[in-house]
Design goal:
Elements (H helix, E strand, L loop, with lengths): L1 H23 L19 E7 L9 H10 L5 E7 L8 H17 L11 E3 L4 H11 L4 E8 L4 H14 L3 E8 L1
Pfam families: NAD_binding_6
InterPro entries: Fe_red_NAD-bd_6, FNR_nucleotide-bd, RBOH/FRE
GO molecular function, one term: NAD(P)H oxidase H2O2-forming activity
């Protein structure tokens, strides 16, 4: 998944550079479109869900690179640490409050050590699908899951459910380990 995020960032950058180059040379359309200019991703949502905060270290540099280079905010990153207290627990609320204050003051998340704010507990996947369906009506949305098989069934079911109930078409893909 990290390589997909890096590829999206690189494709966005290449497309922007090609457009700037055309503007500098006074041309509106390229003579031949290359692979980078045909890049069709308009928005990407990346959810990193882990039990241990140390796992965020695996791609800390990538999260910071995305935060710096993705000036058009094409990629939306979400970190979830599930070993912390359940959402709604008073201790979790205190941690979240301290974290929010630190992030607002310093621009760095205290859990991941990046510019990407971490959440606690598991994501509410139904709400995630709902928000994406509402934000992207009449579009095709690829859902790519990499992780333990336990979550595969729920994510596939939600993709089918929201495909049937909304105008957004979700296409589910998975890689289990």
């Amino acid at each position: 998944m990290i390589s997909i995020v890096k590829d999206i960032v690189n494709n966005i950058r290449a497309k922007e550079q090609a457009q700037l180059s055309r503007m500098e040379h006074g041309t509106s359309e390229p003579q031949q479109r290359n692979k980078k200019e045909n890049f069709r991703t308009r928005r990407a949502y990346f959810y990193w869900v882990t039990r241990e905060q140390g796992s965020f270290d695996w791609f800390k540099n990538i999260m910071n690179e995305v935060a710096e280079r993705d000036t058009n905010r094409v990629i939306e990153l979400h970190n979830y640490c599930t070993s912390v207290y359940e959402e709604g627990d008073a201790r979790s609320a205190l941690i979240h409050m301290l974290q929010s204050l630190n992030h607002a003051k310093n621009g760095v998340d205290i859990v991941s050590g990046t510019r990407v704010m971490s959440h606690f507990a598991k994501p509410n996947w139904r709400n995630v699908y709902k928000r994406i369906a509402m934000d992207h009506p009449n579009t095709k949305v690829g859902v790519f899951y990499c992780g333990a098989p336990a979550l595969t069934k729920e994510l596939r079911h939600l993709a089918l459910d929201f495909t049937h109930k909304t105008s957004t078409r979700f296409s589910f893909h998975k890689e289990n380990f």
